[in-house]
């Protein structure tokens, strides 16, 4: 549950481990505002270009110990491919995608390294977070002298559309990486990316879309009950939320988070498909296996061209430098597809470059851009969103001039489209503010249905026979889903949101175990129904057996904005047990 940082914590450090790029930012807890937010030192890529984010790539040694992260991991892997292969180094990229759709993610879930070896997702992600943690500590120490991980409130960002199970998994991984611990859970906050951005909106003053406009603050942010849509488009995730400021400056959620797996990476995937079309899927497959690091270099080259503004120039040809090994492959295949497109669209230049017209480049963006626009259009038609007049566009992919133009063209007639100058760092900056003032968000719309298991007196014909059991001579039906909160309900956060009373099944029971579930079906009846995910459990003790079955346990769920805490309290003894289920 998001709680105010305790007094002895000195810094907030937000770690944004993205699917494609990562970074961190920090700020002394006592200082207010955005001016005191510091970023990591710039990272330097192969061409000496400095960037605020580094690729989310990890290189592990054969014994699974850490070797390098980010550009360094890429450079080492691409520069010493044979050594990496012989030495059994393991290279991981885009590994966070494993958490996107896996409802059953757990500590045993594995991720494939580029050589095909399977390693636990928990190890890969915790090692990456641990690297960013150590980097952050190093930088803060240069400014403040001695400081330890225990002096810090750690904020980890997660896409809002992730399943509750995946969000919980990130908390477990944080502990594994040495951020907080199960005994000290309040030292870690899990921040939903669009909510983190929302925390920043009041501090945003310069916008790409409205250069020189200082009135935005007055016209938009200072007006209570103005509904905003935050559209966060990263490497693989589109997260959309709608919030409003209340009279007292607090934030309430107007619509639950929606989104899908759309993001910048899908442009790269389209480029891969184009290469397959041009040079043969089978050949590409072999090439990737034979020259994995050259392949990585080719994709990095595409990545930098994809970010360029030349794409807007209709007459431009965009040159993508090819590794020599790739040129050899290309020369062997002599693709008929290339002839079909014609030299104005695609050609090989000087045996060194693949030259694509800006039109061809744009086509690589089209499917993902269309999906994003379609999602937003459908959403904005909903009656609950009729008051939305402002759309914030943020996230790394929102830095694409092509995407910006498309969104503005589509939506600027009906909406004010605001693109802050810090698009790609908005998440991490917002997460720092979220850490400093988590109480800014006061009301949320619950995106999933939550509940716990329970047993009730058996009613023949109503409950299935196979769920019948006997407790102290009374027939019961077990495995029922006791609804706590239904999808789309508005709840006030950091308050005891939903409570349910349980009695003990047997007079001699001294312990009672509650399991908590998220359900995609708001009307689910049993914990075995489809779409049910177990989130965790809480065990409470109830020692006063002399009261027999006449003992009540109060089970509550608190919504912390991002996470849920479950509490079971034995009313007679006062014994309490809490957990992030
Ligand atoms: N100027 C640009 N033009 C086009 N694409 C860009 C530009 N800048 C960044 N991107 C794309 O944005 C994506 C990275 O965005 P971001 O750093 O927000 O993602 P992430 O945090 O790794 O992903 P996620 O939030 O989905 O886990 C990459 O696909 C990158 O190619
Ligand atoms: Mg991100």
Measured as a percent range, the helix fraction is: 25-40%
Beta-sheet strand percentage?
25-35%
**Could you give the count of β-strands?**
32
Largest sheet: 7 strands, mixed
Bound molecules: adenosine-5'-triphosphate, magnesium ion
* Distinct helical segment count: 14
Strand order of the largest sheet: 21-20-14-15-16-22-26
Distance between the termini: 11 Å
- Gyration radius (Cα, Å) is 26 Å
Low-pLDDT regions:
1-5
Gross morphology is globular
Q: What's the oligomerization state?
A: single chain
Classify the secondary structure makeup into a structural class.
alpha+beta
If you average the pLDDT, what whole number results?
86
Protein name: Heat shock 70 kDa protein 12A
GO molecular function: ATP binding; ATP-dependent protein folding chaperone
Keywords: ATP-binding, Nucleotide-binding
Family: Belongs to the heat shock protein 70 family.
Q: Describe it for me?
A:
The protein has 581 residues and is of the alpha+beta class. It is built from 14 helices and 32 strands. The strands form eight sheets. The chain has a seven-stranded mixed beta sheet with strand order 21-20-14-15-16-22-26, with helices on both faces. Strands 1, 2, 3, 6, 12 and 13 form a six-stranded mixed beta sheet that branches. It has a five-stranded antiparallel beta sheet with strand order 24-25-23-28-29. Residues 1-5 have low confidence and may be disordered. The structure holds adenosine-5'-triphosphate and magnesium ion.
